[in-house]
């Protein structure tokens, strides 16, 4: 989706603030919100020292919005129903703490959280509604479902599982949040835990592959938006389940669906499965 026109928002529009406003996802999200009549951009947040601070959030599109990019979380959330946050874990957690106090819903797209940080998100979701997913695209979430099915069906067939992901050269976390989630989905479908099976590195005299392990391989380069392939390697055959993003539009579109979903919820930790009705 590339939004081309600025829509006039309805009086009842959901008021949306964007964190990471000048980032790759921030720009996609601002463009998408401005093109959605049922949403209104009311806040834009970025890191202290970011060159966009003090400028109009729509300046990069040549579309003034009247919303000025700020590093002040309280100011960015003053008139917001929902915050959409694609920043870094420490930024997201700081924004979430303020949003939880104000009862502002939060869509968290940021990846790279530790287990302790994920527990903080769950705690904040007792006060406000949160959608937390390492991938907002409908296609990736359907891919998770396909992986659940494949992992169950192939469990006793001696298939070795490897997850290969590729992203642009600016990405700072590895493996991607999506790749980790794929590993979790597969492990859970097989009645196990990823932590007991994951192999994140191989180098030198590794020995033979450990049966039942789930291997991860990471590629970084150029402007690759996001590719994920899960390989089930058996005797005499291989199955590959892959998703490839050629644009960030799918992530933005899914995030807006999550924002609309949050406008109907007061608290609780929700996933994109909840938003998309994929739980059954
Ligand atoms: N769930 C999903 O569907 C998707 C998730 N992602 C995830 O979203 C995140 C952002 O990705 P992307 O847009 O490519 O990254 P960018 O680096 O392009 O943008 C991040 C933005 O957040 C700002 N930021 C960084 N640290 C902080 C902080 N501590 N407080 C406030 N703002 C901060 C950056 O400002 P500055 O440049 O000044 O540091 C920048 O404006 C990543 O974790 C990525 O993995 C990405 C795509 C899809
Ligand atoms: O950093 C990115 O770009 C992306 N990050 C997410 C992840 O870590 O899974 C989602 C998507 O793959 C793009």
The number of helical elements comes to: 8
Which sequence of strands runs across the widest sheet? Answer: 3-2-1-4-5-6-12
> Mind telling me the CATH superfamily name of the largest domain?
NAD(P)-binding Rossmann-like Domain
CATH architecture of the largest domain: 3-Layer(aba) Sandwich
The top level CATH class name of the largest domain? Alpha Beta
Mean pLDDT: 96
Largest sheet: 7 strands, parallel
CATH fold title of the largest domain:
Rossmann fold
Radius of gyration, in angstroms, nearest whole number? 20 Å
Morphology: elongated
- Provide the succession of SSEs: EHEEHEHEHEHEHEEEEHEH
Taking pLDDT < 50 over at least 5 consecutive residues as the criterion, the unreliable ranges are 1-5
Structure class:
alpha/beta
Number of structurally distinct domains: 2
Number of strand elements:
12
Pfam families: DapB_C (PF05173), DapB_N (PF01113)
GO molecular function: 4-hydroxy-tetrahydrodipicolinate reductase
Catalytic activity: (S)-2,3,4,5-tetrahydrodipicolinate + NADP(+) + H2O = (2S,4S)-4-hydroxy-2,3,4,5-tetrahydrodipicolinate + NADPH + H(+); (S)-2,3,4,5-tetrahydrodipicolinate + NAD(+) + H2O = (2S,4S)-4-hydroxy-2,3,4,5-tetrahydrodipicolinate + NADH + H(+)
Domain Dihydrodipicolinate reductase C-terminal: 139-276
Structure description:
With 280 residues, this protein is α/β, with parallel strands linked by helices. It folds into two domains: 14-136 and 248-276, NAD(P)-binding Rossmann-like Domain (Rossmann fold), CATH 3.40.50; 138-245, Dihydrodipicolinate Reductase, domain 2. Helices cover 31% and strands 22% of the residues. It is built from eight helices and twelve strands. The chain has a seven-stranded parallel beta sheet, with helices on both faces. Strands 8-9-7-10-11 form a five-stranded mixed beta sheet, covered by helices on one side. The protein is elongated and about 60 Å long. 40% of the residues are buried. Residues 1-5 have low confidence and may be disordered. The protein binds NADPH dihydro-nicotinamide-adenine-dinucleotide phosphate and ligand LZUJQKHR. NADPH dihydro-nicotinamide-adenine-dinucleotide phosphate binds at residues 20, 22-26, 46-47, 50, 86-88, 90-91, 109-112, 133-136, 177, 251. The site of the ligand O=C(O)C1=N[C@H](C(=O)O)C[C@H](O)C1 has 9 residues, from helix 6.
